[in-house]
Structure formats: structure tokens, C-alpha cells
Amino acid sequence: MAKTSKKATRKFEKNHLKDSLERRKVGAKIKQKVQIKEKRALRNAKDAEFLGKGKAEDGEEGAPEPKADPFGEMNVDDFFAGGFEVPEKLAKKNAKKALGKRKRSEPEAEKEDEGDSSDASYEEAPVASDDEGSEGEDEDMGMSKEAMEALAETDPEFYKYLKENDPETLDFDEDADLAEVDGLSGSEAEEERPKKKSKKSKKAKAAAVEEMDEESEEEMLDETEVTKEMVAKWKKAMTEQHSLRAMRQVVLAFRAAAHVNEDEGKDYKYTITNPDVYHQLLVVTLQLVPEVLQHHLPVKESAAGKIRVSTDSKKFKTLTPLLKSHTTSVQHLLTTLSDEATLKLTLATINPLLPYLLPFKKVLKGIVKTVVDIWSDASSSEATRITAFLVVRRLAVIGDAGLREAVLKTVYQGLVKGARNTTIHTIQGINLMKNSAAELWGLDPTIGYTTGFTFIRQLAIHLRSSITNNAKESYKTIYNWQYIHSLDFWSCVLAEHCSPLNEAVRGKESQLRALIYPAVQVTLGAMRLIPTATYFPLRFHLVRSLLRLSRATGTYIPLAPLLLEVLSAAEMKKHAKPSTQRPLDFAVSYKAPKAYLRTRVYQDGVGEQVVELLGEFFVLWSTSVAAPELGLPVVVMLKRWLKEAGAKTGNRNGKVNAALGILVQKIEANGRWVEERRVKVEFAPGNRAGVEGFLKGFEWEKTPLGAYVVGQRKQREEKARVLEAGRRDEDKKGKGEKKGRGDVQMDDVVESSDEGEDDE
């Protein structure tokens, strides 16, 4: 089929269409700016005429004969009857003067600017509407505050009459100022639109600039260097006057500061090159912008914690572009900061902005993602992580159900992402994340249940896929740090919000209690997926998670069989070979290296873990009426195991066998202690209330098994303290050695450079 377009047309579309469109866009932008300036000049001229300045200016232009004052023969009643209309001749004259050549009207514009508001030093604002047909809106906007003050000085009687008969006429200045800020925000939104680049775009832009007058050219191309004096002036205006115009200039400068040293082809009104100015600008912006917003748009909080901001007001709609721009700059700044103090300050200043951002879900989701990334970053300090969490928590408290669900999902994803690598250096930060994030699931039990059910179900699906999949390494989707920490996190959530004490405070059972059973089942299934000695550390991690859950909720979970399976393995029954390796740190290991298998050091470590966890399990039920029956099967199994271990073919590990022997004695002693008190009861086993009230309130630390467990805990804490001190000393020595090697290398470089200079 033949092409319908001409060859010249196709050639033009291929080679010149982009440049033509670019020139057209640039020309339209220049035309719009010129129209905005002309409308502003026209409005200033109308203000001057109303105050009687037009007459004086007309005389300065050298008119040959004096002209009559159009208001001279008009009384006040006639003036109000006319509805503030400017006489036709005078209006035409000033309109012609405003729309004339720009160079001839520059001196007059400068004189008018000198009498403008005090905030004009920060930036002369265009009118609120950029459309050509907005003259009625410009007239309704009213005059500025300074115009009203000048009227009070030049004609006090008329000002008094207005104040007594029509006070609304004098209530112009605040809306006028906001309208100017709105116009500035509109122009800022235009500047933020992405600009398409082409090879000839610079030439097209230069050609368009040559066609505009000199004043518009300087306004478009010049960049203002931010100085300390400018920052001080803005700070004073925002502190003393709560100036919106000053806040706008600060926000524009802050946007440039947030993108400093970035080469993205974007032009900003301000530039910052001085580090001191950069620091001062950041502090002023982060501290004072929320204060100015609070002054003009106060946030009201009810006793129930609900936040109310008048989002339907004209002020809020006016400040919306400014607020979004500032929030976007803060979000971008957070991704570039490395200094902990500045990062913490920036995070802290987000909290006051959150009530104003509630209508903007997209902006809030971006903020939440950025803050959660900082919260889950292993390089962030503990103080910074806590500050970031407070931002997320505040948003979850004041947000609606949809926003709260989005926050919970983002936090969980950040937790899983941050738990990928677990070492001795990151384990504390991961525990901080789990403990802090667990609090969020109790803010809204309904949302907490639905999200918790979804994520636990996801873990169960992964486990089922790993069991049914015959692939060689399918188990790796389960046996990794992220899966382990996810299960441990849900034990933290359920332990915190399903405890009897918290439920008594709320007066009802927690909805999250229904998640205990599926969470326990998934955890038990993960432990038994690969029951080999290599993954004994993983089993111990998950047993601790279930112990926490059982301790907090009072739910009985049969953990003793899982630990007895460890003792039944060949790793613990047979004689181990000697080894000089360091003991394995079970706290930061879920898998034993091959070098540790069948060694004495690994056998000792596994034995210590089994003794500890069995003691922690039985001490939970040390005051239960069923403690003797609960411990009897385990005591029988342990005695049989000790007998086999002491034989010639046994492990002959005196350390592990002795520890288990002591544990057996304590369990038996605790059973006899409970039997002595159980003899005195008068209720039958079927009496549920009597069974639950047996030894209720008795301190478990005073039981025979409880006293033993308390002593073991103190020994482990002391041992951990010594190991931590040794690790810190090693880290300091390692840093000192690296620094020394670096100094030696620098000395070599300096010496070699000196030798090179001597040779020259």
C-alpha cells in the first residue's frame, strides 16, 4: 500500500519535528511568564490608582496640562454604589501602560515594587491564576496588606468608614498572600515537569530566548546563590511573621540543596556552594517549615487520637503544591544523607508534616518506603532506627485502615529484607526491628489479624512447596535467615498482644490469638524438615521462638520431644573427635559448618543448648499441678540416654553427661515438691478453676527447678559479657592494625613523591 504523506513531510517529521515541538514549548512557556508579569503590573497599577498614586505618576510623565481627578467629585456613597469600579479612561490608560514596551515601564515598575509588601524581598509573586480569562478572579483577590495600611495613612476617615460599615473589605491581605504563594507553587510545578532532551534542544532554547526581552531572559537563566544573609532573613520572617512567602523561598532553596551535586539536567532557582550555608538552610527548613504550617493550618487532635486538618479550606489547597514539593525534597534528602545527626534531625521533622499529608496516599507511601529502608538498614545507628520507627508508628496511628495496612506490609517487607544477613554485628539491630515492629500489629487488631494471617499463610505455602518439591535444594527456601526471623517475628507479635495481662487491660481476648495455632504448626514443620545434625542450630532458634510464645500466652507446646530427638542423633551418642576450633556461636548460626560435625567442641555446644532449653521448657510448668506427670517421660528417656552414653560405645562426654544428670535431678525434685503441695488440695482433676488456681501467684524462681534455671541464666549472662568484651577488644586491635598499615602506605606514597620531586 502506497504511503499517503509526502516525502518532504516525512523528512520533516524525521529531522525537524522534535526541534519544532521543543521551540514551541519554550515559546509558550516564555509567553506565559510574560503574561503573568503583565497581570502583576496591572494589579499593582490598580492598587496605586486606588491610593491616589496614579495622579502623581501621571504628572511625572510630563503631561502638558493637569487632568481632573476622577474621584474628586465623587462622595463615599457614590463610590460604593459604583462597586469599586475604576473610571473607564483611567483603566484604559493604565492597561495600555502596563501592556506597553517593557523597557520603558521598568522604572515605574521599580517604584511600585518599592511600595509593595515587606515579603516582596523574598520573591515577587504572580497572580494566582495564569489563565487569560481570570480578570474577575484578580479583582476579587483584593489588595495587599500594605495597600490597606497606606490607605489608613492617606485617608483615615475613609479607612474608618470602611472599618465600621464594611469590615470584610479590609480582610484581604491573608488571602492575597496565599494566592501569590499558590501562583508561585503553580510555576514550581511547571519547573518540575520532566524536560525532554535532544541534540538541538539547546539551540532551540537559545533562539527562543533571543526573541524575548532582556528582563525575561535574566529571570529564566539566572540562578541565585544562597548566602547566609538570605537564610537569616528567611529565618527571621518565618520566626517572627510566619511568612508564607519566606517559607516558599526556603522550600525552593531546600529543594536545590537536596539535589546538590547531582547532574540530572534540572534547573533550580537557587544554588548552594557554601557548606555552612547548606547546613544553616537545612536546619532552618527542617525546623521552621512545620512551625509555619502549624500557624496557618493548626492540627487538631481529639481525645481518641484522631487528627483533623481543614483540608477543604482555601489555605490548604493553596499550600498543597508547596507541601508536596517540600515532602519530596525531604524524601530525596533521606536517601542521600550519611551523617547520623542530620539523618535523625530530618526524620524527626517528618512527624509534624504527616497530618497534612494524609490526603496524599502516593506521597505517604513513598515516605514510608524511604523511612522503612532507613529503619531496616544495618548501617543505621540504634537512635536513627528508633527515630525512623517513630515516624512509621505515628503514621499508623493517625492513618486510616487502608494506610495502616500499607504501613504494616511495608514494615514487614523491610524486616525481611534487613534480616537477610545475620552476624554478631547485626543481630542486635534485627532484634530491635522485630521488637519495635511487633507493636504495630496491636494498633488495629482487625488489620493486624488479616495481615498476620496473610504472611503466616505465605510461610506455610513455602514450607509445603519445599516438602512436596523433590528438587535437591528446595529446602533452601526454608532454611535461611529470612524465614527463621519471620517465624521468630510472629512469635514476638503473638507473645506481645496475646498475653493474659494485655488482654485483661483491653477487657477482651485478642483477635490475634487465633494465629497462635497456625504459627506453631508452621514452626514445628520447619524444624522437622531436615532433622540432621547440620541444622541443629536452626532447631534451637525455633525452639526459643516457641518458648517465648508459650511463656507469654500460657499455651502448652510440646517441645521436649524435639530436644530429645537431638540427643538421639548419632552426633550426640557416639564418641566425638577432638578439635581445636573455637566454640560455635549458636546465636548467629543456623547451620553448622562441616568442619564442626562429629567434633567434641560441637558436641559440647549442642549439649549445652539441649540442657538450657529443656530447663527453660520445664520451668514454665514448674508450678503446674501436672508437673510430675509432665516430667516423668522425659526423666525416663534422659536416664536411659545417660546409661548408654556412659557405656564403652557411648560418647563418653563427661561435661554433657554431668549437665544432663543435674537437670534430671532438678526435674525430679520439682516433681516431688509439687506432689507434696498437691496432696493438700480438695478439688478433683475435672475442676478446671481449681486446677488453674493451683499455686497461682507463687514465684516460680522459688521452686527447685526455678532456682536452678536462675543460676544457669546468670552464668550464661556472665559468659556472654566476657565474650562480648573480648570481641570488642579484637575489633579495636583490628582497626588499629588497619590504621597503622594505612599510615605506612601513606608514608611510602609521600616518600616516593618527595623522591620524584628531588629527581626533577
How would you explain this protein's 3D organization?
It is a single chain. With 760 residues, this protein is an all-alpha fold. Among the domains are: 154 residues, no CATH class; 74 residues, no CATH class; 101 residues, no CATH class. Helices cover 67% and strands 1% of the residues. It is built from 34 helices and 4 strands. A two-stranded parallel ribbon has the order 1-2. It has a two-stranded antiparallel sheet with strand order 3-4. A hairpin with a 5-residue loop joins strand 3 and strand 4. The longest helix has 56 residues. The chain is elongated. 30% of the residues are buried.
Record keyword descriptors for this entry.
1% strand; elongated; disordered C terminus; mainly alpha; 4 strands
Shape: elongated
Mean pLDDT: 79
Query: Strand sequence of the main sheet, in spatial order?
Result: 1-2
Overall strand count: 4
Unreliable runs, pLDDT <50, ≥5 residues?
53-73, 75-144, 171-180, 182-221, 743-760
How can the largest sheet be summarized? 2 strands, parallel
Give the helix proportion (percent range): 55-70%
Derived structural class: mainly alpha
How many DSSP H or I helices? Answer: 34
Distance between the termini: 76 Å
Rg, please? 38 Å
- Portion in strands: under 5%
Helix and strand topology:
Layout: H1 7-15, H2 17-50, H3 53-60, H4 76-81, H5 88-98, H6 102-114, H7 135-141, H8 145-154, H9 156-165, H10 173-191, H11 201-211, H12 214-221, E1 224-225, H13 228-241, H14 244-258, E2 270-271, H15 275-296, E3 300-301, E4 307-308, H16 314-336, H17 340-348, H18 354-357, H19 361-375, H20 382-398, H21 401-418, H22 427-440, H23 445-468, H24 481-497, H25 500-506, H26 516-527, H27 536-553, H28 560-567, H29 570-573, H30 600-619, H31 627-645, H32 654-678, H33 688-692, H34 704-759
Parallel strand pairs: 1-2
Antiparallel strand pairs: 3-4
Helix pairs in contact: 2-5, 2-11, 8-9, 10-14, 10-16, 13-14, 13-15, 14-15, 14-16, 16-19, 17-20, 19-20, 19-21, 20-21, 20-22, 21-22, 22-24, 23-26, 24-26, 24-27, 26-27, 27-30, 28-30, 28-31, 30-32, 30-34, 31-32
